[in-house]
Amino acid sequence: MRIIETRDAELMGRLGKVMQEKHIELYPTFFKPYHQEAITNAFIKHFENPKERVFLWQDDTNQEAIAAYLWLEEQAVEETIYTFGYQRLYLHHVLVMPGYQGQGLGKELLNFADDYAKKQQIKAVELHYWPNNGIAKHTYKKHGYEVYKESAQKRL
């Protein structure tokens, strides 16, 4: 696999379909239908922030095929009266395309994030996932992620 950085909002709008459809599958009453133009426009805004970066894993045998992508952001979490502030690398999306799942790419993306954080001297890598996404939950736990905060909702 070849890893390249992209700032192509239109490409991210197209790739966003896989992520959005997975979210809809898991939580159909929460997530909106996929809308390529809206996602493209959102990435145009995201890419204005130099701390937000997207890395693509291209298939060696087909440079047009994207096997996976990692959307990350360097963030400063501010101190509050209750908590200490800190720097974190936040992983917005960790996505392996369906045809490439089960080949160890998820681990490769997470290792890439760890290495990126270390190079930036960031000591925390954080992400969130939906509890019904058992594959993600298992992958992150296996890679050393620990749940440190949980959210709950009561629907009325």
Automatic annotation (TrEMBL):
Q: List UniProt keywords, sorted A-Z.
A: Acyltransferase, Transferase
The protein's matches in InterPro entries, at most eight in alphabetical order, are given as: Acyl_CoA_acyltransferase, GNAT_dom, YpeA/RimI_acetyltransf
Q: Does the keyword Transmembrane helix apply?
A: no
Any idea where the N-acetyltransferase domain is? 4-156
Give GO MF terms, alphabetically. Answer: acyltransferase activity, transferring groups other than amino-acyl groups
Is Acyltransferase among this UniProt entry's keywords? yes
- PANTHER family according to UniProt: ACETYLTRANSFERASE, N-ACETYLTRANSFERASE YODP
Q: What is this protein called?
A: GNAT family N-acetyltransferase
